[in-house]
Amino acid sequence: MKFDKLTRKSIEALSKGIISSMPSGYFTTPAIANGAMLAGDEEFTDKSGKYFTCGFAKNILTPSDLTSKKYFIAGYESNNPAQYVLDDMFARAVYIDDNTGRGGVVFCAVDAVGISRKDINDIRSLVIFSGRIPGLKSISITATHSHSAIDTQGLWGEKLFKSGRDEAFMEVLKKKTAEAIIAAYENRKDGRLFYAVAETVDMQFDCRTPIAYDKNLTRIRFEAFDGSEQIHIINFASHAELLGSETKGVSADFPCYMIREIEGANVNTNAVFFNGAIGGMISAKEIKKVYREEIDCEAYTKEFGKQLGIIANSLTDETEIEPIINVASAPIEIAASNFVLILARLLKVLNNDILRKKNRSQAYILSEVGYLELGKNRIGAFLIPGELFPELWNGEFLTAEESASAKAAEYKVLKDMCTCDHQFVMGLCNDELGYIIPDNDFHLDEKTPYINNAHDRFDRNHYEETNSTGPETARTILTSVERLINSVKDS
Fold it and tell me: How many other β-carbons are positioned within 10 Å of the β-carbon of residue 207?
């Protein structure tokens, strides 16, 4: 054990040495990193507009030269070049305005495993500086977390610590996503907004204790007054990883087939999918069979998406939402304890904005959190920059007797910060920080932290820690969300 502790301390010392010796060009300032973030409303209101105005647009992101140029599939093993297109990657954008004069908001979903805030800010800048959406108060961009899309983060390249990102592709992705956002505004129509919720049965699987996840499928539906259009916004929590690690085809995974089912069953309808709190890991019911390649993964992906689409289409008990949009965002600084991620940044595999503090030996990732309300306490949505463990939302933590640390979790969880009739998490929103894990069950391998999976006193596998920024991330995010909500709402 002494050797183990010495090894871990040596690795931590090495990490600090790497950070302190990195050229200043690898770091940025909060002012620069936060320059494209629109903060939203300074104060939330219950003032209602006469009606909603909404618009939708989408752009295909799949490159036309996919079969003649090497692009890497992200989400499974590295060095997995795409060989064909199963279904296209899209950017899907929705513009919403409550016509109170306080400005409109944009929500955009990109079929990708994750997108860094730096890339998202590039997209925001293209939209803002175009000058084509006046009065815009918020832009939020999420990744659907497809594990069969082209690598947008850099972690799945040909070799270890060689980026899998194709920069030309990324520039096109940013341009086309910005174009979709602008087109959504230009396609806007007046109408009404409704929401409905279904608790799904036997659709999900939780790969890690505690078994605690959001079973709800939430649908927010816009209906134009003239009957010409519907927009369906879907929130559901599941890893989009159903095609399995052997896939060679670019795909948006199950969200593609869910959207096809929704759009095919409704006239003049467009749909967009936003993933939920999927840390833990929350995936589809038969995911273990997918991992073991025991089923036809392509058929399962299509059927799983179709069934979610059928559930979404079956919702009839709707509640109309008053024309009120309140939204706010705030920048955060997260201590990056995972030295592997810092090394990846040094080698330009990752491109996250990072800050250096504490005598130049501690790196912080510059990210953000957000909170949205629709209607008069109707909908509350938490905009979270990564894969949140659901217990940080619902409070269903492991006890001290059950947790890896033998300690209880002490948090004010997200659901206790919201008084709305219905709430949900919008995960991988405006950044991808990996798994966001409660600190009482955060456990690292003593010899090789963040490299090898740890096993705790119950011999449970702690894989997710290797893909996290560190044990302080969850507390930083939750306290930042609470502070943000308190700053915009009356106490």
Answer: 16
User: For position 66, what pLDDT does the model report?
Assistant: 96
The pLDDT tens digits of the residues spanning 117-168 come to 999 999 999 999 999 999 999 999 999 999 999 999 999 999 888 999 999 9
> Is the distance from CB of 296 to CB of 199 less than 8 angstroms?
no
Is the sign of the CA dihedral 144, 147, 148, 150 positive or negative? positive
Average pLDDT, the chain: 96
Enumerate residues 6+ apart whose C-beta is below 8 A from 455: 461, 462
> Contact, 164 vs 74, CB < 8 A?
yes
| Distance (Å) of CA 175 to CA 56, 126, 136, 416 | 17, 7, 18, 39
Does residue 378 sit in helix, strand or coil? coil
Cα distances (Å, whole numbers) of residue 15 to 256, 340, 471: 41, 9, 16
- The C-alpha atoms of residue 185 and residue 181 are separated, in whole angstroms, by 7
CA distance between the termini of the chain: 50
Residue 77: which residues within 8 A CB-CB, separation 6 or more?
A: 156, 245
Both structure tokens of 42:
């300074």
Q: Which H helix or E strand runs over 56?
A: strand 52-60
pLDDT at residue 1 in the model: 37
Label the pairing between strands 269-275 and 230-236: parallel
- What are the two backbone dihedrals, phi and then psi, of residue 185, each rounded to the nearest 5 degrees? -65, -45
**How far apart are alpha carbons 298 and 400 in whole angstroms?**
41
Residue 351 has pLDDT above 90, yes or no: yes
Kindly tell me if the per-residue pLDDT of 426 is higher than 70: yes
Residue count of the chain, please give it: 491
Assess whether pLDDT exceeds 50 at residue 2. Answer: no
